[in-house]
Known about the structure:
By secondary structure, the protein is of the alpha/beta class. The protein contains 13 helices and 7 strands. It has helices at about 45-75, 80-85, 90-105, 125-130, 135-150, 150-155, 165-170, 200, 235-245, 295-320, 330-350, 355-365, 385-410; strands at about 25, 30, 180-190, 210-215, 220-230, 260, 270. The strands form 2 sheets. It has a 5-stranded mixed beta sheet, with helices on both faces. Helix 3 (about 90-105) packs across helix 5 (about 135-150) and helix 10 packs antiparallel against helix 12 (about 355-365).
Amino acid sequence: MSVNPNGPMAYGDEDVSSGSADGANTMDGHNKRPSGTPAGSGRKRGRKATGDAIVDAMLEIAAASKLRAAAIMKNTWANMDDIDLQLDEMELAAAAAGYYYFNSLTRQPPLASSNGKGHNERNRVIQERFQHSGETISRYFNNVLKSIKSLSREFLQPAPETTSPEILCSRRLHPYFKNCIGVIDGMHIPAHVPAKDQSRFRNKKGFLSQNVLAACTFDLQFIFIYPGWEGSAADSRVLRAVLDDPNQNFPHTPEGKYYLVDNGYINMEGFIAPYPGVRYHLHEFRGANKLPRTARELFNHRHSYLRNAIQKSFDTLKRRFPILKVATQYGFQIQRDIVIAACVLHNFVRREERNDWLFASVEAVAAVEEETSDFDAQPDIMQLGSSVQEEIAFSLRESMAAAMWNDFVITWDEW
């Protein structure tokens, strides 16, 4: 099978689709039936039951997060192996939802559960708990994984056009970033791929990964996810591929609005990058006599502070779903779907449990150190924006820097 060199990898009969919409399903230019949509007319059967099961699983994750936090604080897991502390909540949530779905179809009474404690069990223990074979658990894991992925349209929504409260309520950020609607960056997830493809999936840090394009709001919710690109692909190349493909349903910016991006991307209309060659990362401004000395340094500091929202989102996602920290032995399509489903559940918890302990712990930190800062020091020179787009972005960045510097020098008694 031939593979499109300009698109994400796929193996065998696996389809390639946008992370935020199942409507785009193409491989090598050929249309395919959307992933998870069975042939024939049986699609509606059990759909309500599946939806109920998914909601139950999501609520279980939110509840389990609280119990997990309490257990850690009480040190009740101190004697457990490290591997047991790596909670593959995605597997367990899908298995639990699969069981509830199976139960809803067969009308069997539910088995007793141990709530949060059960989220530290593995497939073998789940078999005993639910009294079903490993094959059954695995099958429903896949079914529910696809069902959760299908909810991406509902839970991965474009950012509001209004100024976010995180900007509106900050003297440092408003009114300068009032038209910023979100942040874009790449996230590298360890990947398991055949030997023949490993050279393309080996990233600049030397490990095999899939490069996931992500966009998030300042409320730490994902609005777009596009997994599956090989780890060697530059962030700017992935973004350009998405922008050039209308089937990906990328949430384009309304006129005058923009996303923040790092120096791995081109500074162009709709995507504002920091000034290159100027201090940028927050740690570079810490300590005595390290205040910004120019308008460009001040802009970069504020840009870095605001863009850190996506690092906090990545950190929360990986801490909640440790399965994203390892190269699982699933097929590559499943590896991609796990990323999408994790982001759906991430957004669900954010919406339904505002006091979630993981979000609270991340928000309490001023800044989360970047994991991908050295993947793309410079954008891919083959993915340049048009000169007009770059001139518009350059002018906007210059006016923002001048305005905030003027206020900083003349009216601010603190920075």
